[in-house]
Design goal:
By secondary structure, the protein is an alpha+beta fold. The chain folds into three domains: 170 residues, Beta-Lactamase, CATH 3.30.450; 83 residues; 153 residues, 2-Layer Sandwich (Heat Shock Protein 90), CATH 3.30.565. The chain has eleven helices and 16 strands.
Length: 481
Amino acid sequence: MIRLPGVFRKIRTRLVVIYVTLTAAIFAVLGTFFFYIASEGMDQEMGRRLNLVARLAASRLDVPTLRSLRAGDEQSAAYLRLVGELQDLLDIGAAARIYVLDKDYNRILDTTKAAKIGQPLFLAYNDTEIQRAFEGAATDSTVFTGVDDQLYKSAYAPIYQDREVVAVVGVDAGVVFFDTLKNIKRDLALMGLSAILVILAVSVVLAVGFERPIARLVQSAKRMGEGDLEAPIVAGTRDEIGFLAQSLETARENLVQRDRNLQMLQRGIAHEVRNPLGGMRLFCDILTDELTGDEQALSYVDKIRREVTNLENVVNEFLDYTREIRLEIRPVDVGQFFSELLATYGDWGHRKIGVHLGIEPAAATAHFDPDQLRRAFFNLINNAIQAMPEGGELTITVSPGEERWIVTVADTGIGVKPQDMQHMFTPFHTTKDKGTGLGLPFAKKIVEHHGGRIGLESEPGVGTVVTISLPQDETRTTTRP
């Protein structure tokens, strides 16, 4: 049975996933690019500001007074005056801190209140920039993340005395700069997320609109596959899907016409073949009366009668197979159903076949059309009998499943050759000298009309097992060709 695709296999789902994935990838790339450009621009601008503040601080400081400071002078008037001059410069470059280092990286001045003169300042991240400042170049560092997960950026400028660099002034960027970077990153992320949500909504609408005619087409194809050829297929669009719908409608009309022709053929067979067969049987009876006493002639008449009977059986099986099936589902006593079915064969002893019927209590009642399934099981049991000409064992078991009940018909007959297995349900294929090859296909047709499945396993010389699974619900009423 062909099943409809699950949610994750539907075209709509795949289209939405493709749209959203592409959008997310594009915005991730563009967002990263824009953030890089913006952060680079801000980094350069902040570097210029910090450099300006560092050079201003280096030019405004009284170097002799600066070099005269010693440890413990943090509260002296000279220290406080120099620190005050540095604090006036903080707002110019949106800086957070200004400090002065000697060649040993010891602090001489620092706008941080807790700082001490002579206290070393560990700036391993900016060692290269500080060294360049001591060499006479004003520099700034790139933005980096410290061990405390905080962002940092600094600028350095040399302090000269008698054309010699005696100290370096450092300026650290303020929190405003880093907050701006974080805000840009956050805004880009929000824009990307908003765009993805918008694209998701738009893609769902587009995908649903795109899938709707396909879904109608799928349902129409499903109905056709189940044998319902009554409902016409309407092409709702003029694109490729509409063309496919028109093609499917043409196929439906052809199938309807084929069924009509088949029904005409059935009536023709019934009239042109069955009626002459009835006449032939009548003449056989007349010949039997006319040839009383002529044993050899009567044997010829009996042979003709048997061939007429065989031909009638072939015609009847063909008509049964091509005729539409009407199901009348009702509750059935499973034990009684199979007991009556097996009883129609009379005494099994003369066939040397042992019959075993096993029905689990939970499967005592089921819902199906007993008349139709009786025909299906007749075919299966007849096949089993013909497969055991020397006798054997016939076992029928009925057991319940979660949503289906299972019937197995097993025999210990001659089995089926491996090369014939794939053709066992093909109409008119037979491995017997006499037969139409419609028994198993007809049984399969009846089972599938019940919404069930049928399978066959066989091993030459061991036997054959036919397994049928039927739904347990009681709502199936269907008419199909």
